[in-house]
Design a protein that fits this description.
about 400 residues, mainly alpha, Na+/H+ antiporter like fold, 17 helices
């Protein structure tokens, strides 16, 4: 057990460093954890050996997978049904544009610029078109946008984009068998039945130290996740749909959501994000950066060309439209899942996988950093978030004045 505890300590140590940097520079914790994971592999590879953190150990993959599932569920639960009904046209238009044009553009870049064969190029287009609910939701949550109609509309658009990713991946590559039909039937039953069963169960057995609510949700998500992987799909898909189905109940229970966030952000997602960054070999990317650069530029350009005009068409100001566009360009969760699906099924080779994953991680970092640095729509921030930001600014100014007085 000693190696397991040591690796767990390593992950939480890296997550702690990421939290400090994220707080100091007002960055998304998820993005910093990805970067810290990437740098950790490089440093450990030069010193103790990259195998110090065994990213493919079953227990690491399990914790990372549960983290992705729960984070995706929370993102779905944050969708306000009333806002979705009111903004469904905008969300559908932005989400559809965010998938269709970038998937074709990235396929063309892989096939014609990088010389990939047809199937690997199609997979690259699907993977790079995806928007990471995990990254976008984390950014929304850290700035408080998840409590605004603006943030909820972006999350709804992410759902449309990722739904297109999963459906296209399934239609093009995944086998369609009787298992698929059974999974779709079970998912449909859960989508309809859980909103009716969950409130009754929570009212009768919830509100106790046994944390019945969390165990109930874990059971439902893990069962549907098992059915999804058994049918050749991915476990995060039912998690998002179940989150949406329960948004009117679970999503409005702030105390329960807070407890679930503590489990997810504090315990589980560090394994997911640090592991995602750890997969990238920085020396390999530096030695052969062309593919990564091509994919990053084409993905971002195609998102701007497709999403920005649609956002503007729905009367969004320039700053809001650019922020929406850049967040929709942030990939990770479904992108890496698609890439790993391609590697596991021998659609792409290890070299193509490394290039694709490095590009996907770059899309998780670069567009979001640009968005938060230059286009952050502060007028949408909740009032308490604005007050906290002003207080932090005043505190920094006072520290500078005190330091100046000490020097003088």
């Amino acid at each position: 057990m000693t190696p397991i505890w040591a690796q767990a300590a390593l992950v939480f140590g890296l997550a702690l460093i990421a939290s400090l940097f994220a707080h100091r520079f007002r960055l998304s914790t998820a993005l910093v954890e990805i970067i810290i994971g990437l740098l950790a592999r490089t440093v450990l590879g030069l010193t103790l050996g990259a195998e110090v953190f065994a990213v493919n150990e079953p227990w690491v993959k399990t914790l990372a997978g549960i983290g992705a599932i729960f984070l995706t569920f929370l993102a779905g639960a944050e969708l306000d049904p009333d806002v979705f009904k009111m903004k469904w046209k905008e969300a559908a238009a932005i989400g559809g544009a965010s998938f269709l044009v970038p998937s074709v553009a990235c396929w063309a870049a892989a096939h014609y610029l990088l010389g990939w064969e047809s199937s690997p190029a199609i997979l690259a287009g699907i993977a790079l078109a995806a928007t990471s609910v995990a990254v976008v939701y984390t950014v929304m949550m850290e700035y408080g946008f998840n409590r605004t109609d603006y943030g909820k509309t972006i999350l709804a658009a992410c759902f449309i984009t990722d739904l297109g990713t999963v459906v296209t991946l399934g239609l093009v590559f995944a086998p369609f068998t009787w298992k698929t039909l059974l999974f779709v039937a079970a998912l449909g039953a859960a989508f309809v039945g859980l909103p009716k069963i969950t409130p009754v169960a929570f009212e009768k057995f919830g509100g106790r130290p046994s944390e019945f609510e969390a165990k109930f949700l874990l059971f439902a998500l893990m069962l549907l996740g098992a059915l999804a992987t058994w049918a050749g799909s991915e476990a995060v898909l039912p998690a998002y749909l179940v989150g949406m189905a329960l948004a009117g109940g679970v999503g409005r229970d702030s105390a329960l959501v807070r407890r679930l966030r503590t489990i997810t952000i504090g315990l589980l997602t560090p394994f997911y994000f640090i592991r995602a960054g750890y997969f990238v070999s920085l020396p390999a990317v530096v030695m052969a950066p062309v593919g990564v650069i091509v994919f990053l530029l084409v993905e971002m350009a195609s998102k701007v060309v497709s999403v920005y005009p649609v956002a503007r068409a729905f009367m969004s100001p320039h700053k809001d439209a650019m922020y929406t566009t850049l967040l929709m360009a942030s990939g990770l969760t479904f992108g890496t899942i698609s890439a790993l699906f391609g590697l596991s099924n021998k659609i792409i080779d290890e070299s193509q996988y490394s290039t694709l994953v490095a590009a996907i991680i770059a899309t998780a970092v670069v567009p979001t950093l640009i968005a938060n640095r230059f286009y952050l729509p502060r007028h949408h921030l909740p009032k308490d978030e604005i007050e906290q930001a002003l207080a932090a600014h005043d505190a920094e100014a006072q520290e500078a004045i005190d330091a100046s007085e000490v020097r003088s």
